[in-house]
Write a structure and sequence with these properties.
With 400 residues, the chain is α/β, with parallel strands linked by helices. It is 44% helix and 20% strand. Strand 3, helix 4 and strand 4 form a beta-alpha-beta unit.
Length: 400
Amino acid sequence: MILRNDLERVILKQQIDLKKKLGVERNLTPKILDNFATIITGVRRGGKSTVVRQFLKNEKPVYYLNFEEISLVNFELSDFTQLEDLFYKTLGEEGVFYFDEIQLVEGWERYIRQLVDESKKVIITGSNASILSKELGTHLTGRHISLELFPFSYEEFLRLKKKNHSMELFGDFLRHGGFPEYLKSRDSDILRNLYNDIFYRDVLHKNRLRNELALKTMLYFLLSNIGKEISYNKLKKLIGVGSGNTVSQFIDYFEQAYLLFAVKKFDYSLKKQLVNPKKVYCIDNAIVGSNAFSFSENRGRMLENAVFLELLRNGKNIFYHKNKAECDFVIMDKLKISEAIQVCYKLDFATKEREINGVLEAMNEYKLDKALILTFDQSDNFHIDNKLIEVKAVADWLLA
């Protein structure tokens, strides 16, 4: 239970947050539909609040509350009644409800369902993907729109810089990623604090985990091996946990926090997909570069991570292919593989045969007529056995 005066003070204080600068226009545009709640999830400090403020800039009033406010730690389900009353009395009626990190309140989905049933306009933002799972299953099934927001794409990065593409700027993007606050200041403390916030608040504390050292060791190892095959059984020995299932659960926690993403090896057998080694990617290159062992100069892996993130932004169903050769990404669409994408920093004498063999094997396996090899700055076309392999510079592909 929270005192009414305390709640009113928080409401008025947080109204000031709505008036902050709107920042760079993002490529994600929320929408509000009658009888639906709009839920936007994404990594902490990825720009969710800015997107919502941009969208609501002409809406008055906005009933905003961020539940990470320390004075709301005792907020309970029953407090929503007086919260709504205070919104109407202090801000007026016929507004939009905007709640950030509402999942911190047990039973929150019941109140949201009530607002939806009353045809209220509702937007929710959260930094953990679990907000879309069990909480919604009972009360908001079929009554919500889900959107995901990621750190800046290269297009948005250029918008922030107010400049056109150049290879120098693209190299800068590969190193420094897309977290808005960090890009504006380049202060390494911002990046360090963000990393710690995600690890401790969104992974360790949210899931009530005690084995901090094992989690940290595992995260460090995964960040140092971006884009490489990872065996869960080998990983369990490295961090000293009892089973591969524990490793799988830890990675699931990292995924829910939008920190890491595990990509499965494609197989028509779902059972084999589960047991085969995974490849892991990170939400942002800057986090990889600042927290992994000797990673800053591994330009090929940084390029591959950037390509993965763009595929993720575009909602692709991503796998990797490996048999005698390997293809970095194969994309499933309508129950079949529709694209094959290889990533190589430089296609030269040392790498050309390997990269082409990998993508050709995938094309033959999934009956594809064309495929793509993405490089740092090369463009070309190859015709082999009546199949087209297009070579493109990653920046051109990102901006297409």
